[in-house]
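Re: beginner question about structure tokens

> Can someone show what the tokenized structure looks like for a real chain? I only ever see the sequence side.

Sure, here's an example I had lying around. Input first:
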Amino acid sequence: ELSKPPVVTLNAGAARALTLDEKASSGTQYAFTYIAAGDEPQGVESAISIVLSDKSGNESGKLSGKSVKFDFVAPDLVDMTVAGSPVNKDGTATVTFTVNETPASAPVVKLATGELLSMSGEPKDDKYTFTYKPTENESEDTAGIGVTVGLVDGAGNEKNGIALGAIVFDFVKSALSGAPVVTPTVARNGEPV
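And the corresponding structure tokens:
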């Protein structure tokens, strides 16, 4: 039988005490909480240690085996390309990018108009490919329509609206702007037409 509740600490750069949650604790089962301060080391395992004391004053030493990993940083893109632009009515635009950490779910890639791009195949080493087939309702602005990505990592950190560039759409066939003019109308041998 313990003489007092366990002492639980987190080694996150420095030893940090966890707080006993008396409402969630009962009998020999104890619950502890820790509120992240924001200065904990990122992306590394921080060990949790527990010290038990019995009624005779014997201490268990530091029991271990569990750890916590902190992540306060939103995911981001490390490289990106937009290919196939300008896109005609039969074309396909392709967007490729790599995420700096494995997202918790598939990235959301969309045009500024709200149209979603489709993921093409499975990602490899956090490299994603998305495609867009035009509907011919897209604006033919020469600046193009912006493409953005939204990401969420395993810790729930979000980053939305990451700009990838723009896709230019061109559905108008090339044509002459008037009747062709040929001068001279009659050509002699050796004269250019």
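Each token stands for a local structural state, so reading them left to right follows the chain. The mean pLDDT is 90.
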